[in-house]
Design a protein that fits this description.
This protein is about 30% helix and about 20% strand. It is an alpha+beta fold. The strands form 3 sheets. A 7-stranded antiparallel sheet has the order 8-14-13-10-11-12-9. Strands 4-1-2-3-5 form a 5-stranded mixed sheet, sandwiched between helices. The chain is elongated, with a radius of gyration of 25 Å. Keywords: Metal-binding, Zinc, Zinc-finger. It holds the Pfam family zf-MYND. It comes from Favolaschia claudopus.
Length: about 450
């Protein structure tokens, strides 16, 4: 039995909760949206790092507690990117509480919190769990059977589960709950976790996808009341990295639906559409920008990978969306040490649609959290621009020595005239694999990122 069906609006909302915002009128079918959601969840649990060649046989891995590690499963299940890790450190430093949004406002964040509840149940002796929304319209019965160690910081949590609806509680679920509530299974307690219907959609898709990856020979012992339950496993889940964020947010051109663009706005020439229907649908939203872009001046810039530094500098950039675990930072350092070649141009997630970028000049006087490690040398100030979008799916460098002097200087002067002196926000369009055009005289409002 597969996960429950979700409406189109629910699928788009679930994808958005993870950071995948598709065009508002995407022409992907509901089945394609569901398939993309499952792929996104696979990326969020870093599946290929653990299950590179299915099927997975948990029996070949040692029990979590067998190698003398004192790390609780609760600690090991957590995954953060660098932005979140910084927020946590700052909160601890100032004695504040949880820096994340409150519960029940984002289904994906709720899922990550629920995985922590499951991990806590592991540390407390494998307590059975029931997940229900506040209206009790949907529920999941679950018990952890075992925890295996993939590596020192990655547990594999083996579970059995069953999903029920309010009006369709199965006899098996009733017997299972009764066995724990009334102590016939040797216990008289059960963990109850509030989980929204949307969060349960995500959890069930994780469980359904992973159950198919288990080796058929793996048959752990389960209680008699769990004979009809489904066997699966859970892995740590964290935010999408920059590469995945770019891959799943990719737009093929049309600003409305994401389909390949065949025409552009005749007034401003900056926005493209697949057909006249999408252009008409977008006119009300596009008109204010269109009026401002008429007659705008654009400058073309050739860029290179952000990993390449300006002359006389050495740089390692840790994207705020990079994972803080899995030794990702060390891999970046290794690449710099080995002078690895660039991986190629960054993905074009914006298609031909204009998007806002931050343009920042390198400067020894720059303040704030450093994302670049510069060898201190003021003589190299303002020889390089770092350009990136909000989600860092596009993060590149423009070096003075790689472009026409007039082009670099023209953009530098626009940045210098801004309120902050070394950085500003500009409209941009991607014109080729290694080329971007930036608007020089129609600046967007100052962004808070």
């Amino acid at each position: 039995m597969g996960p429950p069906r979700a409406s189109r609006a629910e699928l788009l909302g679930l994808l958005s909760s993870i950071g995948v915002d598709l065009p508002p009128k995407t022409k992907l079918t509901d089945a394609e949206l569901d398939k993309r959601l499952c792929k996104v969840l696979d990326s969020a649990q870093y599946l290929t790092r653990v299950v590179s060649t299915p099927p997975l046989d948990p029996a070949v891995y040692p029990p979590w507690s067998s190698q003398g590690s004192d790390m609780p499963v609760l600690e090991a299940i957590q995954r953060h990117n660098y932005e979140e890790a910084t927020m946590i450190d700052v909160s601890k430093m100032h004695g504040k509480g949880d820096p994340f949004p409150r519960l029940y406002t984002n289904a994906f964040n709720d899922l990550r919190q629920t995985l922590m509840s499951i991990a806590n149940a592991c540390d407390q002796g494998m307590a059975p769990l029931v997940f229900q929304d506040k209206g009790e319209a949907s529920g999941i019965c679950m018990r952890v059977l075992d925890v295996r160690r993939f590596d020192d910081k990655t547990p594999i949590i083996i579970v059995v589960y069953q999903h029920d609806l309010k009006d369709a509680l199965t006899p098996a679920s009733f017997d299972w709950i009764s066995s724990y509530v009334f102590g016939t299974a040797g216990r008289n307690y059960m963990a109850n976790v509030t989980a929204t219907v949307q969060e349960q959609h995500l959890l069930l898709r994780l469980l359904h996808g992973n159950r198919k990856r288990l080796a058929s020979s793996y048959k752990p012992k389960r209680a008699a009341t769990e004979s009809s339950f489904t066997l699966s496993f859970l892995l740590p889940v964290g935010p999408l990295g920059a590469v995945d964020m770019g891959r799943y947010n990719a737009n093929n051109g049309c600003t409305v639906c994401g389909q390949p663009a065949k025409q552009k706005c005749s007034r401003c020439g900056a926005v493209r559409y697949c057909d006249a229907v999408c252009q008409k649908d977008d006119w009300k939203a596009h008109r204010p920008l269109c009026d401002g872009w008429q007659g705008a001046k654009w400058q073309s810039l050739k860029f290179v990978s952000a990993m390449r530094s300006a002359p006389g500098t050495y740089a390692v950039r840790l994207n705020k969306y990079d994972n803080a675990q899995h030794n990702d930072a060390q891999k970046l350092l290794d690449r710099m040490t080995e002078h690895a070649e660039d991986d190629g141009p960054p993905p074009n997630t914006h298609g031909t649609t204009p998007f806002i970028v931050k343009v920042q000049l390198n400067s020894s006087m720059a303040k704030g959290p450093a994302h670049t490690l510069f060898r201190a040398d003021p003589s190299h100030d303002e020889m390089q621009m770092l350009i990136y979008d909000q989600r860092r799916t596009f993060e590149v460098s423009v070096n003075r020595n790689d472009v026409a002097e007039a082009a670099f200087e023209t953009v530098r002067q626009v940045v210098k005239k801004g309120d902050r002196g070394i950085k500003t926000f500009l409209w941009a369009t991607r014109t080729a694999e290694w080329t971007i055009d930036v608007c020089l005289d129609k600046l967007p409002e100052w962004q808070k990122w």
